[in-house]
Amino acid sequence: MNLFQSVTSALDNSLAKDPTAVIFGEDVAFGGVFRCTVGLRDKYGKDRVFNTPLCEQGIVGFGIGIAVTGATAIAEIQFADYIFPAFDQIVNEAAKYRYRSGDLFNCGSLTIRSPWGCVGHGALYHSQSPEAFFAHCPGIKVVIPRSPFQAKGLLLSCIEDKNPCIFFEPKILYRAAAEEVPIEPYNIPLSQAEVIQEGSDVTLVAWGTQVHVIREVASMAKEKLGVSCEVIDLRTIIPWDVDTICKSVIKTGRLLISHEAPLTGGFASEISSTVQEECFLNLEAPISRVCGYDTPFPHIFEPFYIPDKWKCYDALRKMINY
Amino acid sequence: MAVAIAAARVWRLNRGLSQAALLLLRQPGARGLARSHPPRQQQQFSSLDDKPQFPGASAEFIDKLEFIQPNVISGIPIYRVMDRQGQIINPSEDPHLPKEKVLKLYKSMTLLNTMDRILYESQRQGRISFYMTNYGEEGTHVGSAAALDNTDLVFGQYREAGVLMYRDYPLELFMAQCYGNISDLGKGRQMPVHYGCKERHFVTISSPLATQIPQARGPGYGIMSIRVDGNDVFAVYNATKEARRRAVAENQPFLIEAMTYRIGHHSTSDDSSAYRSVDEVNYWDKQDHPISRLRHYLLSQGWWDEEQEKAWRKQSRRKVMEAFEQAERKPKPNPNLLFSDVYQEMPAQLRKQQESLARHLQTYGEHYPLDHFDK
């Protein structure tokens, strides 16, 4: 399956085993603008897979409401760039529901899915990676998969998790490579980073699409510099797996973090700050962040904007030579 | 107590202050304490009438249980001037626009249509990354643009290019924005069709939609409203002209709901046959199209004929193709323009990032499409 198919499969599994599960959002009924919900309305009926008006605040607000009653609410925001009208609902309502009620009430059965990240020509409003805005909000979980197999397992975990979750799907990967994905449900745990390649000299950390970039950078480093990289996919942005990252940095002494989102206030800054607190004496070089620039995401300039393999390779080289 | 109530009347306090609160305001010197901005309807507080006393409400009580049906709202009639064959229905509503103006309306719509066809095709060929056509909605664009002053500021959504076309935005600049080339006023930063033009008072388009929708119908917001046939250029014109006149004269907003139909797909990323019938689309294309209706009017006035139609089609296609070929040949803007205009002044941190890209390109430039960009 490719990534959009693995998402459909996860949603299919959810609606099959959980009679309270419903899927809603703009254009989900006919199958969705990225085909993630194809066939589900026919299979499960119009009461379980339905369109909403064009109103992100309403989509999330409604989702919170039904989650509070105990139903499994799977909301779709058509592009992560459009999640901001729902920001108040997410931050002030969903994230705080359990805490403010003294655990009398919660909307843990809410999951929000949204296409995320650059796509080649998306420009300002079809390319954003807004995870950093939500990382600053205790009470929600933010999860980003790198592949079809990861997507299904992580999405199922989000849906079943007892806390409201945001699941960002890298849109550029929707139709990219396919891989073997089980038809039956399975879970990949949240808040666990994955070491996808072991190494000894440098730790490379990324999530979503960027994992593939750093994996390639690891090959380049091996080939051109004889450097051995440990490549880690963070997978859950919050609550994040501090232990796996720190364990790796204690081993390698060098850390490079990379994301498409702008540098300032991006999630790499949180990782960097924590790692220097925990692993200060293990560090051989300053922690490197290779990120998007502090500008809106440009259209024609995208090839210059993104933290591509050359920028990551160059930063790695400088760290090795520090 | 009597003093307090009298004082309240003088100061026009009508924010629902309780009697007890009023008692505190005995002294005229306390005037500033609870002053509020009076709403449009001012009511003096009085507990004597058996009318609702809710501040700002002007309704009566009713003792019959009745829900208001939303259908009442969707029954608002649709104003039109021409029938579907372009004939004026009620002569007193004919705006009697001069020939040149009507021809300008017609040519703006048809030139836009021609440009749409060519640019949609160019996306299919991979020449531009994305496009959105205006098929079916052209009447709403030009009818409203024609009724406004050229200096009126227009905030468009992404399917309103006809306003720019009517305001003589050159083909070269439409193309430049779609190609993101060096002539683009937007400096190559946005996806195609996100036009903007300061001199033509058209604020640059942005993608997000829900931030811009009126969340309720006009009457729900207490706004003067009208519904018009958006495929009837004269109806749109008349409504916009009158709304503008009154908005300026009366200092209040007016909502015009121009009913129309989007004939094309949402964008080059959409195949609308997945969610609507081809028959429905064909109906609008063939039976109720703003361009056809205006053409019938032009023909019946003797202001247009088949020969002129043929010649104009040829000419407009040629103009579009020329602009298109030129746009394609131009380079993209210098990558330094990635960094400007985030703020009015460039922050030091951002300048450092700009410099680091420049250094990076010196070493790794071969891996970037620098040949297509301005040096």
UniProtKB/TrEMBL annotation, chain A:
Reaction(s) catalysed by this chain, per the record, are: N(6)-[(R)-lipoyl]-L-lysyl-[protein] + 3-methyl-2-oxobutanoate + H(+) = N(6)-[(R)-S(8)-2-methylpropanoyldihydrolipoyl]-L-lysyl-[protein] + CO2
Q: Where can this protein be found?
A: Mitochondrion matrix
Spell out where the chain crosses the membrane.
none
Requisite cofactors: thiamine diphosphate
Q: Name one GO cellular component term.
A: mitochondrial matrix
GO MF, one annotated term: branched-chain 2-oxo acid dehydrogenase activity
Q: Does the keyword Glycoprotein apply?
A: no
| Keyword Mitochondrion listed | yes
InterPro entries in the record = THDP-binding (IPR029061), Transketo_C/PFOR_II (IPR009014), Transketolase-like_Pyr-bd (IPR005475), Transketolase_C (IPR033248)
EC number(s)?
1.2.4.4
Q: Which UniProt key words apply to this protein?
A: Mitochondrion, Oxidoreductase, Transit peptide
Q: How does it assemble?
A: Heterotetramer of 2 alpha/BCKDHA and 2 beta chains/BCKDHB that forms the branched-chain alpha-keto acid decarboxylase (E1) component of the BCKD complex. The branched-chain alpha-ketoacid dehydrogenase is a large complex composed of three major building blocks E1, E2 and E3. It is organized around E2, a 24-meric cubic core composed of DBT, to which are associated 6 to 12 copies of E1, and approximately 6 copies of the dehydrogenase E3, a DLD dimer.
What is this protein's record name?
Answer: 2-oxoisovalerate dehydrogenase subunit beta, mitochondrial
Name the species this protein comes from: Homo sapiens
